[in-house]
Design a protein that fits this description.
2 helices; Cys_repeat_1; about 450 residues
């Protein structure tokens, strides 16, 4: 876990830090940044040592300094008999006492602070130096330089988008980016805009684009003459533009339904969508949504294939061996067409939408997380959420009144007794067993955070 040290502490924040001297290190949240402050130890000004016999009484030698310690009652002959960070003295195990501080005034009478050239989180003089590479002294504490983080040993410079990464676990600076194939790149469903990764906005055929992810129609790509040049959304090979969508040139696709998914439960479909005789329904690799009685059901759509051998719905299959289809078929643009009736047969075929985009009404939609801004219902449907107006002009993916968010999806929770949870203003009452207990006759269910009848 990397610890980021803030570089913009104000005077009040500095004053807050100056009041602390309890442990060797503490964690604080200042201006939204997590800080770990490591304090110096209190020692007697003349209390230096080389070996344990140099320290008198109830003191032990740690890093050439005599520090107070407490006896643990365990007998020993050498330090290893006592365990990590413990000392064997007088044939007894001793534990150095916590006597951390950051200034002489916090130490017992006659002791002084051991502040030297600091490492990250330790005290330093404004004009002093910090031992950790790429660190500097700010508000009397050693901190990493801007755009760098502390990995526990040194300050590592954050890597910009497009720059090499991976060496020494150097992290990427931009939000929604990660190290992919040795280069900092935007994650799935995000696109580079300037120096940041922005969520993809879907475009129609003919509109200007910079990547395939931006094009909404199924089987479409961003057609560019050069990698870094702007292009336009166009239909892939072996498809053509018809009614502003891309349709297969050979017209061999006949759609059917493989299975339906409701509340994470899969229901195989016995009626294979009316495939002709000697044909069967095979998944196209994308999901769609069907409105039924005011709610949406997720359907895995397919195409009717001949019963003899699997046939790609659009275009020719990728030249991938059947035994290596799952590992070598490019997951971004293709899927492995398989059927339980043909053991060992798999074909790498083009799918309508890139990655996990949702295929609805011949268009590809980026699935949004609960709480993200939305424009249409189809963007929220994979999480069982609704695109609702939360304030004037602002629409967000939210759960319905009788549902809660659980593991990124909207579900209708049930109490262990299968009884209904406590409701208020037609919404489920949320609780926390430690800070927000339920009313009498109810208890807080820890799994869902809802109030259930006792």
């Amino acid at each position: 876990m990397l610890t980021v040290f803030d570089h913009s502490l104000d005077q009040s924040s500095s004053a807050l830090l100056s009041m602390l001297c309890e442990l060797y290190f503490k964690a604080y949240l200042v201006s939204g940044i997590s800080l770990i402050i490591i304090f110096d130890k209190c020692i007697s000004a003349s209390n230096t040592c080389v070996q344990q016999k140099d320290c008198e009484g109830r003191k032990v030698c740690v890093n050439n300094i005599c520090v107070r310690a407490k006896a643990l009652g365990k007998k020993c002959f050498v330090d290893n008999d006592c365990g990590y960070n413990r000392i064997c003295k007088y044939k007894l195990c001793w534990q150095p006492e916590d006597s951390s501080c950051y200034r002489d005034g916090d130490c017992p009478k006659g002791d002084t602070s051991t502040s030297k050239i600091g490492t990250i989180g330790q005290r330093c003089a404004n004009e002093g130096r910090c031992y950790t590479p790429n660190a500097f002294c700010l508000y009397n504490y050693c901190q990493c330089k801007p755009n760098s983080v502390y990995d526990g040993v040194k300050c590592i410079q954050l890597v910009e988008l497009g720059e090499p990464c991976g060496e020494e676990n150097a992290p990427c600076r931009a939000q929604n980016s990660k190290c992919i194939d040795g280069t900092c790149q935007c994650i799935e469903n995000y696109i580079l805009e300037g120096r940041e990764c922005k969520r993809v906005k879907k475009l129609d055929l003919g509109q200007f684009c910079m990547s395939d992810e931006q094009c909404a129609p199924s089987y479409s790509i961003c057609e560019r003459s050069a990698p870094n040049e702007q292009g336009r959304c166009a239909c892939r090979q072996q498809t053509s533009k018809q009614d502003n969508v891309c349709r297969p040139l050979d017209g061999k696709v006949k759609k059917c339904v493989v299975r339906q998914i409701k509340n994470e439960v899969s229901y195989p479909v016995t009626d294979k969508g009316g495939c002709p005789e000697n044909y069967y329904c095979v998944s196209m690799g994308s999901f769609t949504a069907k409105e039924l009685k005011g709610s949406y059901i997720i359907e895995e759509i397919g195409i009717c294939c001949p019963a003899i051998t699997p046939t790609c719905p659009v275009g020719e299959p990728e030249p991938v061996p059947a035994n290596y289809c799952e590992s070598e078929c490019p997951k971004k643009t293709h899927f492995c067409l398989k059927d339980e009736n043909m053991v060992g047969v798999a074909t790498c075929c083009l799918k309508p939408c890139l990655w996990n985009n949702v295929y609805i009404n011949k268009s590809c939609t980026v699935p949004l997380r609960i709480g993200e801004a939305c424009e249409k219902q189809s963007e929220c449907v994979l999480n069982n959420a609704n695109c609702e107006e939360v304030e004037k002009g602002v629409h967000v993916c939210v759960c319905s009144k009788r549902e809660i968010e659980f593991k990124g999806k909207c579900i209708e929770p049930k109490c262990p007794s299968q009884r209904q949870p406590l409701m208020s203003n037609s919404r489920i009452v949320r609780c926390n067993p430690y800070t927000a207990p339920c009313k009498s006759n109810y208890r807080c269910d820890e799994k869902y955070g809802i109030c259930c009848p006792r």
